[in-house]
Amino acid sequence: MPTVSVGRDRLFQALGRTYTEEEFEDLCFKFGIELDDVTTEKAIIRKEKHLDEEEASEDEELIYKIEVPANRYDLLCLEGLAQALRIFNGLDPIPSYSVASIGKESMLKMNVKSETSKIRPYVVCAVLRGVTFDEARYNSFIDLQDRLHQNICRRRTLVAIGTHDLDTIEGPFTYEALPPEEINFVPLKQTKNFRADELMEFYKSDMKLKKFLHIIETSPVFPVIYDRNRTVLSLPPIINGAHSAISLKTKNVFIECTATDLTKANIVLNTMVTMFSVYCQKKFEVEPVEVIYPDGQSYICPDLSFYQMVVPLSYITTIVGVSLPAHEVAGLLNKMQLNVENSVLEENQTKFTISVPPTRSDILHPCDVAEDVAIAYGYNKIPKIKLPSLKPQSLNQFSELIRAEIGMVGYTEVLTWILCSYKENFTMLNRKDDNSTAAINGNPRTADFEVVRTSLLPGILKTVGHNKDHPKPIKIFEVGDIVLLDEKKDVGASNRRHLAALYCGATSGFELIHGLVDRIMEVTGTPFVTPGDKSGYYIQSSDEPEFLTGRQASIIYKGNQIGTFGIVHPQVLDNFDIPDPCSFVEINIESFL
Amino acid sequence: MAEEAVLGYLENNTEISDSGTFAEERGINHDEIVNIIKSLNGFRLVDAQDIKRERWVLTNEGKTYAEDGSPEVQLFLAVPPEGITREELQKKLKPTIYQIGCQQAIKNKWIEMGKSQVSRKLQHVDDRVRDALIQIQNGEAVGPDDINALKRRKLITSQIWKGYSVTKGPKYAPKRKKVATDLTRENLQRGDWKEVEFKEYNFLAKGQPTEGGCLHPLLKVRRQIQMIFLQMGFEEMPTNNFVESSFWNFDALFQPQQHPARDSHDTFFLKEPSTTRTLPEDYVERVKRVHESGGYGSRGYGYEWKRDEANKNLLRTHTTAVSSRMLYALAQGPFAPKSYYSIDRVFRNEAVDRTHLAEFHQIEGLICDRGLTLGHLIGVLHDFFSRLGMSKLKFKPAYNPYTEPSMEIFSYHEGLQKWVEIGNSGMFRPEMLLPMGLPDDVQVIAWGLSLERPTMILYGIDNIRDLFGHKVDLSLIKRNPVCSIGL
């Protein structure tokens, strides 16, 4: 997106008020431009020269670098920016640009020679009469040409702009294409006469101009504009003549745009004249020029007519998604520089006839009009409409992710029964039933189904006991629910999602299970902290009956105990007929959500 | 034996003052004693204090002289009392012995070196060098002058000797109980686990790191975003086609042929295959017309549209190239609403830096239906981004050649305390949709963002090259947590 640098104070003066940086950013955001950077002239120079940052002195004028949309050429200068924002703020009416009505006889003429079709076939021109420049306006006028050249003109390939002090030249003008050897003139910023081919050679060392040479370099003829006295106005798209150079004192400006794309030439010319006609003696009035092509066709330019577009109100409101009355839409359109000349009612349908000013070349289709209404209404005021969608169960989704991680570090998943025998859940684990833990089955068919497990441990140990012949080590895990008595629940019991893992080998693998705990914490993004710190997890030794004393610990996560791990007590191993030492970890994973 | 010696000695004595002499007195190898002391110290049975001593040992050269005598003496002895010619003398000795021997013997004024004749100056010499070397070898004290002389001749070298002084530790016992680091199968078989004492476990240190594979963080995030799209009822588009024509990548999207994005410094154009073979001709004709002169209510761009430009092949610059193909295909049958998504690779001819790569992943979602409004777009963006953990959104007007209205999406970043741009969105232009043949009351709302940006925010990565490409930090891939967005 193009960036425009404007002096903050001049901008605020043009806007008729001052803004805090935040207020101005907010205005930009609503309008669809962006305050990219706040800097000073000196800071820019320092940056270019790679000098160290210095304290900006207070008297330096602040420069706002503003990003504008790539299709809004009317925002590429302070004049246009200020005008658009003033209209947006409801301060100014939409300007009505006009072409001075002068007779065809007294109109300046530009005669196009047929050879130009070989290199750069189009030219459009206009005159600004009675312009008052000051230094700032003059600089803005030059800067706008640069920015247009950079953007829509595609680095002068599509369009090149030449501006001249009309009082130094005399029409009619001719637009020709001649062999370089036949073109002689003193170019801008030089004092010596150059032949065009020599000039091209000369500019090969010019940092700014050398990148444009390729556009005509290989052509046998170069485009050139003369006045009636064979004074060279310009050698487009490279350089203007020194003779007609504009200055702060220039009153009457002749603008010519040569091009390979006529639509863009007209947009560029219209942008130049609409932006700077504000400084003309007759504000917003532009003097026309007749361009006559070799086939006798002639065109009066610029064409500052407003483009008419008929747009139904319903089209606009169905795009925006807000139903708005016609007068309100008309008001919003005005804020965006679009005139609604009349609204026609047809079969109970409101239709707008919208007049698009010559400054708004970006409006191609009614959808562009609808967007302007949405911007003026405020994107962030449009109520959101929710489309049907589903939400997953976080706990289940999280279980899926954690299961994959445990599998990836080499543990095999098992899926065991929720129900187990009373003994397996308590005495075989060295645990005592305090009668406030487990949900007890009232009518179990066999002892296998007496209680709802309160831990994943019995199922895992039974699995190991039945896989005694499996090569060691055995590394298994399970993610599943246990049930605990819960007075807070209507039914008096609730599920809890646990993760358990077991290692069994020639040694118990206690350090490996400890390492698995670290990995679980790593994949849940939990830092390892010193005991007492509530921002992560730490391990402290514990005293649970199912584990061997001295080789068991609690896992403390953000201050709460969420699990334990340890070497399974040899007595417990014996109870489950397991001959090999085992280490086991069990964690409540609901804590991670 | 060494352990019993140390523990046994300390039972009746307060200190072993020097492990070196202790070992020597008992005829035990000092290294063995040292190992035992270290182990006992680890279990706090003893407290050991380091002792360091510098001592001298013979170099290889020194050892041979201790054996055979110094070169100068060997030379002296080879000179008979009556003298000898140089040639004869040289024959009797090894070249190095001859050379060094001559130097030293002359220096000591033991012999006379004539032009051809060599003769003794003394009748008898003592081999003090050899004597000193033997003394050092035996660990006996030697005067500093001798040491310096030998050192200069590189016959001896210093060695740091390490030993310990040892006292009883807090857990001292005359006999060490068996301490184990882990419970073993043998402990269970023998049933001696009750007696096993475990070495104290350090829970302040981490356990043994797990071994295993890890998935790439970017693709973990992709997986979660795919889940989000599926939950929102979106169907995935086939995006396994990196090579695309300018037509589908740009022209079909109403992106004019002079648009800066179509410059070679933004897009990779292909040398081979340089052009597309076929395009749907009647559709191409409609696209050409809409660019040149508009239609469907549009003014068009008013330029001469060139087929050659559309035919140029490139590496797709966005997955919207696929969206244009999908919407065109959709328009060929009776209309049915569709919600599409894709997450895949796109290419830009950009300089690589901390935040830019020449290739990245684009996430794209679109809904094609009748009666869609900006309100729907805003609604679907809130739904989508809040699932990514970004629920505070605001929208800025923007420009994009193929969407109108267009909205840039900003999200409030709590960490940075500011609004950051996170994506782009809009409604596809009628100039794009109508030439495809879609009904004129059908709207398409769409949005796009990169996969890298939210991933970098999520994992706190500030250099994109650490995340994606061959310069990645593998430990970062291993370290990074599960992606829990969309849960």
From TrEMBL, chain A:
GO cellular component: cytoplasm
Coiled coil: none
Name this polypeptide is given: phenylalanine--tRNA ligase
EC main group: ligase
Example GO biological process: phenylalanyl-tRNA aminoacylation
Family: Belongs to the phenylalanyl-tRNA synthetase beta subunit family. Type 2 subfamily.
Cofactor(s), by name: Mg(2+)
Naturally occurring in which organism (per UniProt): Penstemon smallii
Domain of life the protein comes from: Eukaryota
UniProtKB/TrEMBL annotation, chain B:
Annotated GO MF terms: ATP binding; metal ion binding; phenylalanine-tRNA ligase activity
EC number: 6.1.1.20
Localisation per UniProt entry: Cytoplasm
GO cellular component: cytoplasm
Reactions catalysed according to its record: tRNA(Phe) + L-phenylalanine + ATP = L-phenylalanyl-tRNA(Phe) + AMP + diphosphate + H(+)
Record GO biological process: translation
UniProt keywords, alphabetically: Aminoacyl-tRNA synthetase, ATP-binding, Cytoplasm, Ligase, Magnesium, Metal-binding, Nucleotide-binding, Protein biosynthesis
UniProt-listed Pfam families: PheRS_DBD1, PheRS_DBD3, tRNA-synt_2d
Principal cellular location given in the protein's record: cytoplasm
Keyword Ligase: yes
InterPro entries: aa-tRNA-synth_II, aa-tRNA-synth_II/BPL/LPL, Phe-tRNA-synth_IIc_asu, Phenylalanyl-tRNA_Synthase, PheRS_DBD1, PheRS_DBD3
NCBIfam families: pheS, PRK04172.1
The protein's name: phenylalanine--tRNA ligase
